[in-house]
## 1
Amino acid sequence: MWKTKRNVKITYKPLSSQKLEDIVSYQPISSDKQKTVLGVDTVGKNTGEWDWRGKGWLMIASSHWEVLGWGELEGGAQWVVTYFAETLFTPAGVDIYSRAKRGCGDEVVKRIKDALRGIEDERMGKLTAELFEVARD
């Protein structure tokens, strides 16, 4: 989904102890227009699991996602790794997010990929191999 997008930003706002508003903004690679996807995340059955439902015309879309790991970079910037299930519009995947404008850096990404490859799941290995850096200005 992100291969044709840039400057992706995800913001979570608490709605209750069980729900988050999920705001995804991005720009297409070939445009300066800002686009937004809105949804609501509801706490899943297990710790770190969430169920997303789109808002507006995306109300028909839903997805399950999980936090696989997180950490902190030197200087206090944080990162998180998530797995998300297939939706009507996107295949399943793994994302690495960072609060640092520069991203996580090659060494942290390498360590995350190594850890993901250590998960004994063929699908996770495939998803890890497909990871790529999203363009940002």
Note: The beta strands are 5-14, 19-28, 35-43, 49-54, 62-72, 78-84, 93-98.
## 2
Amino acid sequence: MPRLLDLLEYLSLPGHEHIWALLDIKLDNPPEDVMRLIAQTLDSHSQSHAQSRPWSSRIVLGIWAAKYLPLCTTYLPSYPIAHIGFSTSYARQFLSVPHVSFNMLQPLLLGPIGAKFIRDVRQDPDRSLFVWTVNDEDMMRWSIRKEVDGVITDEPEKFLRVCREWGTEDGEGQQRRIQVSREGEEHSQEERGRRRDSDEDGGGEEKRLRLTMTKTHDDETMDTTKVDLLNVLYIDSDWTDGRTDV
């Protein structure tokens, strides 16, 4: 099982500077221990590796419970936070905390209650809204129409096709601010197009990036902090340049 340190090494490779990661910090970890170990690992790697961008602009702390908020402030005060949730009523308490983003179970956002939650999230332009897990084509179109900031899906090929069809139908040639993810693999529309063009020109096999959205498990030492593959969320650098809150 790869460690958090292994993920950081991967993200430090040349050409990966545009990738950021949302850490899915599970509730089965002792909160104080796991936050301390994550902070130690990030700090240790920063001291031993020169980075063009600080980890605080590339790592988002994904938390399920409000009890993690003070721990984030204590151990990683400069890092952005996203609440991962399956209850809009519970998630609303995070609206009182500036700039906290949301990664929500997508069906919760349907209907008037979900619409009101989306409007309230959009009141703060520094918040991002992601949805999981979107495999149905109609729900993919819904996500595009609502202009969410990211989509987690098990079927990125289908989602990319839906995005291309959507762009053709509305006559816009621009890449949409909607991204694709699945367990162990990720593709952006733009990157996928470049790879497809390369393959058609005999440019070789397509290479898939991995390990960008994770869940963490703590151990007794920072060196054995574990990272499991969960999902991948990929954002192009030209979208996030200058932003540390997504």
Note: The two ends are 27 Å apart (CA to CA).
